Amino acid sequence: MGGAVAPLGYDRAVVVPRGETSARALVTLALGGVVVVGLAATVAAWCWGPALARLTGAPVLADFWWVCPVTIVVVALQRVVTSWLARRRDYRALARRTAWQGLGQVACNLALAPLGGPLGLVLGVAAGRSASLVGSFPGRRDRSRLRHSGARRQPVARGVARTRRLLVVCSVSVRYRRFPLVTTWSSLVNVAGQQALLVLLASLHGAPAIGALALTMRVLGAPVGMVADAVGLQVEGQIGALARARRGGLSRSVTRFLVPLAGVASTGGVLCVVLAPPSFPVLFGDAWGESASTAVAVVPALVAQMIASPLSRVLPMLERQATQLGWDVARLVATTVAVVGTGTTGAGVLGSVVAWSAASVVSYGALLVLVLHAARRADRLAVGGRSTASVHG
């Protein structure tokens, strides 16, 4: 959650401006936010790490408090770098980033496993994200291409250049102020909505009762998240370029992503529903056979997430931050009411999961409607702008 908030929403704004100067200024603002939040997290972990460990009943925090600020910083840095690569549509670097992230996390877990204790698992996320940052740097061939393709800059006095950059950063911070003011809260609520199911069920039924659900979310949720992230970067690169050009065609491009996404996600969902009941007991043992029923209940929500989540990046591109925040709040309320309502009536964990899944499907369906509406509205504005320009021309 801290890593999502640390760039102060400016990472989502990097793909929006038409000019490279403004985009670089947004990267500077995002990095400034990472530094400030990282320092605040370090002070908080240093001062209150042991107390928080006692409060939450997680003694691991007392010994490894330093992992929290480190993880926040590297996750936030990865978000900023990824947004810049998506803007440039550097899919080769994005592919390296994904591969290095997986290899780094696995290598950390394996390297620290002989030491015993939870350090390998606790540090794995930070190690994977750090490796992804290394993988994001251009190779020798890419550096040569960027060097030869870059425009020559006119020499400017150092003091004048610094003043000019500062003025640009200040101007850009005012122009895109809705991202830190709105998108930051949207990211917080979004993460809360993703984690609400396990937290609420643990409070209603106890932590041991949700073991099957936790296993299901780890087995099925992780691949869905990876696919949604990869497609979301494609959306930011391709649809972001269209949005910056302001020539229309956004709704058509959204549909081109939507149709194959729906086909792939639906096919994967059907396979999960068919294969989960016989395969879960074989893979995880008879004691985890209950996870198969939970997986079947969760699949519709994951299918809807895989379809809608990548396309939701269109809303911040079009500067519809309030729409995104409204949806995040509505999703959190809908899923919370579904889980708590069924839990208090004695429906059991599976009944609560079914209700949560249904509420999630409806929420993601509404998100798709909002995205398509925003894209069509942007297309109409682009057509109107061209018509006005042709009349005055």
Oligomer: single chain
Uncertain segments are none
Identify the overall geometry: globular
Q: Pairing-aware structural class of the strands and helices? A: mainly alpha
Tell me the Rg in angstroms: 23 Å
Number of helices: 16
What letter string, H or E per element, gives the SSE order? Answer: HHHHHHHHHHHHHHHH
Helix content: over 70%
Overall average pLDDT = 83
The N- and C-terminal alpha carbons lie at a distance of 50 Å
What's the number of extended β-strand segments? 0
Reported for the largest beta sheet, the result is: none
Share in β-strands? under 5%
| Count of folded domains | 2
Short description:
The chain is an all-alpha fold. It has helices at 2-5, 10-13, 20-56, 60-63, 67-88, 91-112, 119-136, 140-149, 158-175, 178-205, 211-245, 250-284, 290-311, 314-317, 321-344, 348-392. The chain contains 16 helices and no strands.
